[in-house]
Fold this sequence. Notes:
Blueprint: H1 5-36, H2 38-44, E1 52-57, H3 64-68, E2 75-80, H4 94-104, E3 110-116, H5 120-126, H6 135-141, H7 145-153, H8 158-177, H9 181-188, E4 193-200, E5 205-210, E6 215-217, H10 219-230
Helix pairs in contact: 4-9, 7-8
Amino acid sequence: MSNDAPSNNHDAVNAAIGLLQLLQGVDEFSHKVFPESAALFKGLAQSQSPHTLFIACADSRVVPEMITQTQPGELFVCRNIGNIVPAYGEMLGGVSAVIEYAVMVLGVRQIVICGHSDCGAMKGLLNPLSTSGMPTVEAWLRNAEAARSTVFARKLEGPQALQALIEENVRLQLMHLRTHPAVAAGIAEGRVALQGWIYDIEHGQVSVFDEGSGSLQSLPEAIARLQGEAVP
């Protein structure tokens, strides 16, 4: 028991330091950041009207508001391991409820599914042994199994396989998204648009899926395409 005590004490100290840092961050927000945007938060205090549902990985390196340079109240964010959207009826739960609420109650106009480089969930999908002993994770990742099968069929390996899986997973989750009744109705009525992104953490760049060609476009290409579509 005495041998464990130093380790336990060290862990407790680290936990206290981590919590203290969080609280100090809140204190800085309350006294420095919040006053500069007090009018914004006053308007948001009673209601919200986000324009976009942003479905991203729970990875700590992915920060939707920073990537998109949006303000509080603009994004309705759903985060989970692997930016996964179970097909409707397959695994009804938090993600399905978020989608339904965002479309039917909040009236979001866009839904973005954002994958990212070096995704741990996709690494786990490529190497099943790495998720051994985590049955919940394994069950969740089965929602991306079709993407893995596509990559395996292409006989890719190493970094190429990982990048291909990250991309295929976003494509697959967009397909799953369309099975949700609220989304299907929104698309049919022209109220909701979908888009898939791949965020490159190292270079701070986003690539966008062009569903017409089925390929990834650079950000300038995607912006130019949408600007053309926005002209009456």
